[in-house]
Amino acid sequence: MPTDCLFRDDSYLKDCEARVVGITEQGGIVLDRTVFYANSGGQPGDTGALVMADGTRLPVENAIFTDAAKSEIAHILSKDVLGSGAPGPKLGDAVRAEIDWDKRYGRMRIHTALHLLSAALPYAVTGGSVGDSDGRLDFDIPDAGLDKDVITAKLAEMIATDAAVTSRWISDAELEANPGLVKTMSVKPPVGTGKVRLIDIAGLDLQPCGGTHVRQLSEIGAIKLTGIEKKGKQNRRVRIAFA
User: Fold this and answer.
1) 12 three-class SS
2) Measuring CA to CA, which residue among 110, 151, 132, 171 is closest to residue 236?
3) The CA-based dihedral angle spanning residues 117, 172, 44, 139, taken in that order and rounded to the nearest 10 degrees
4) 159-182: per-residue pLDDT in tens?
5) Which among 73, 111, 157, 234 is most buried, taking Cβ atoms within 10 Å?
6) Residue 220: which CATH number?
7) pLDDT tens for residues 121-145?
8) Are residues 140 and 238 in the same domain?
């Protein structure tokens, strides 16, 4: 059953009321709606808790998609809960889903900064990872010679514009007609549902992305480059972190 992914329309939601509509063979809890981002696109799944009607808090250590179309999300309870023998949610139970907001917000800031990094370095992206306070992108760059100070200054210049970050949806056909929107070589945006989500950083960047982002660039704060590594003949790994 498709999960109503509330984070796609509002990354700032910290909790929501939901109902259990499925339980996977591994014990993952499927809800009819959720604020939990599911692990994908280099961004980890959210952690947090499911709060039952009696107030019992069940820690969630991850959220994952159960299908290739990325339409259904399972909330993975911590191993302590699964191994305790205590009763968990049952089909039809009402619960409140709560994310660890500080961790999520850090990832929102880093993920948005990585979009700026991909704009500052206009090369094909071969991989990436979003952390709570740092992140990295891998680029297909034939020649070395990247300058950390120059790139850091460019990021600061873009963040200082305080441009708005918005999302909108286009059809699969529109994406197919505009292949230049896709920067990532290793991770392709999910297609097949009829629509694809775009993240638009006004005047700076536009690309498909299912991740969570801040609303204004000023929320990112100061960013520094912490390393540039050679990962093959043409692959360069560029790391960033909060300054």
Assistant:
1) coil
2) 151
3) -30
4) 999 999 999 887 877 777 777 777
5) 73
6) 3.30.980.10
7) 989 999 999 999 999 999 998 766 7
8) yes
Encoded tokens for 207:
């690309």
Question: Total domain count for the chain?
Answer: 2
What was the pLDDT predicted at 186?
A: 52
Nearest partner of 116 among 154, 143, 147, 144, judged by Cα: 154
State in Å, rounded, how far the first CA of the chain is from the last one. Answer: 42
pTM of the model: 0.91
Q: Which is nearest to 100 in space by CA: 48, 49, 52?
A: 48
Q: Which of 99, 115, 139 is the last residue before a domain boundary?
A: 99
- Tally of residues, the chain: 243
Q: Which amino acid is at 229?
A: E
pLDDT score at 189: 56
Shared-domain flag, residues 138 and 234: yes
Q: What is the pLDDT of residues 176-200, one digit of tens each?
A: 777 777 766 555 555 456 788 899 9
β-strand 29-31 against 73-77: which pairing, if any? antiparallel
